[in-house]
Design goal:
Blueprint (H helix, E strand, L loop, with lengths): L1 H13 L4 H20 L23 E2 L5 E5 L5 H11 L11 H5 L15 E9 L7 E9 L10 E8 L10 H12 L7 E7 L3 E9 L3 H9 L9 H14 L6 E8 L10 H12 L4 E7 L6 H10 L4 E4 L2 H10 L1 H5 L1 E12 L4 E6 L6 E2 L12 E4 L3 E10 L21 H5 L2 E10 L7 E8 L10 H16 L10 H10 L8 H15 L1
Parallel strand pairs: 5-6, 5-8, 8-9, 9-10
Antiparallel strand pairs: 1-12, 2-11, 2-13, 3-4, 4-15, 6-7, 11-14, 11-16, 12-15, 16-17
Length: about 525
Amino acid sequence: MKNLLSLALLAVLFGCSSEEKKDEKKKDYKKEAKEMAHGEEAPIQSTHNTEEYDYIDENEFLEVTANPLSTFSVDVDAASYSNVRRFITDGMLPPKDAVRIEEMINYFSYDYKNPKDQKPFSIHTELGECPWNKQHKLLHIGLKGKELEKGNIPPSNLVFLLDVSGSMEDPDKLPLLQNSFNLLVNQLGDRDNVAIVVYAGAAGLVLPSTSCDQKDVILQAINNLRAGGSTAGGEGIHLAYKVATENFKENGNNRVILATDGDFNVGQSSDAELERMIEEKRESGVYLSVLGFGTGNLKDSKMEKIADKGNGNYYYIDNIFEARKVLVTEMGATLNTIAKDVKIQVEFNPAKVYRYRLIGYENRMMSSEDFDDDTKDAGEIGAGHTVTALYEIELVGPSIKDKTGKQYKYQSTQINKEAYSSNEVASLKFRYKEPEDTVSQLIEKTVNAKYLSLAKTSINFRFSAAVAEFGLLLRDSKHKGESTYEQVVEMALSAKGEDEEGYRSEFVKMVRLAKDLE
C-alpha cells in the first residue's frame, strides 16, 4: 500500500505542470486512497467546503508553584476520531482544529475495573514514562462507569430529530442516517417509545410517540423520509423537546437525538440562542445527544456545543460500521446517563512536580472555583463508559533549581514541609451528581510518586499514549517532542489486546496511511 501511495504522490508532485492539472491529480489520489481503505470507489466530493471547526488553543505547561490546581470537565464525545478517520481515508490529513486529542483517546474503551461500591464509576491511575519525551512522565487517569444489568435498564422516551433539508441529500447523509436509525430501533425494547420530528423549511411531527412493539411502523416512518428545503434547526429542536416533555417517563431515559450535518440556516440559528434554549430545556430532565453526518458543510463546532449544553454526547457517523459502534455495541453508554456534571480537579505536589500539561480537553477547562460550584455544568458519563485523561509532567530534579516557592510583590508561596516527605505526586478530586440530583458528591484519591518504565506500564497506558502521540503529530504540536508515526504504530501494536471489534487494528492502519499522506 505504501508503494501505491508513494507513486500517487509522485504523480501529484511531478506528473503535471499547470495548477489545474495538479488539482485533478489530487482528486485522483484522493479517490485511490479511498479505494484502498474501503475496497470501493468513492464519490468525488464538491470542492466547495464550508465545514466549521473551533480554534484550539493548545494547553501549555504550567508551573505547579503558580498553578497547583488543574480543573476540567470530563468528556466522552468521540466525534473527532471518526471525523479524522474520514479525512485520512479520503486521502488527506485533517485540519488541525478538527483534531481534539481527548476525543480520539476516548473513542476507545479501556479495561478498567468496574466500581465495587455504590459509586457510579471507578477510578484508575498510573504513572509512567512519556514516550515522546523521555525526560517527562505521563499521569494516566481513567474512569469506568458502572454497567447496567439488562433487567435494570430504564425505559426510553426517545425523540429522533432528523434533518431532512436539501443539504442532506448526499449518500453519506440522509441514506446513512436512515440505515443508522434502523439499527438503533431494532435494539430497543417494548417498554421504549420513539417519536420522529423532522425539519427542513419548517419543523413537523412525522410520528407521534410510538411503542417499540410497533417497530414496523417506526421503521417505515424513517425509511419514507426524503430530503429537500432549507434548515429550520431551532424550530425543530423546540418541537422535539415539546414532544419529549409531553411523553416524559419518570425514572426513564428521556432524550432527543439530533441527526444533522449541523447546517442551521433558517430560524433560530445563532449558537448563543441555541445554547441558551438547550441549557433551559435540559433542566426538565430531557437530554440532547447529537449525531453528525456528511462532508463539505459539516458544522462540527456547533454540534459539539449543543450536545455539551444538552447533557449529551456528540458522535460523527462516517459509515455504517461507526453507526453500529455508537447505536448497537455502545447503546447503553450512548443512551443511559449514570452520572452528570462530572468534574476532575488535580492538585500537584510542588515538591515532586515542577510543571504539568493536560493533553487535550482545551474546551473543557474550568476555573478552580468552578469545581465546588454545583451550578456549573460539566460532562456526563454513560453506563459502561470509560473516560481517560493524560497529563504530561516534569518532575522536580537536580537540574531544576530553587523551586521552593514563587515570589510575588504582595505575597509568596511556600511549599509545606509535609510535601517534601510525602510519597504523593498528586491528589485527585472528582465531583459528580446522580442523574436526578442537584447536589454533587465528592470522591478523593491520591497518586503515588513511584513511576513505571514504559515497557512495564499497562495496555491501557500504552494504547492511550499511542493515540495521544498520533494526535500530537496530526496537530503538528510544538509539544510533540520526539514523536514519530513508527513509534505510534509500535506502541499501539504492543497494547492492542484482544481487540474483539477490531477498532485498535483499524487505528494502526490509519496511522500508517497518515504517515504516507504526510
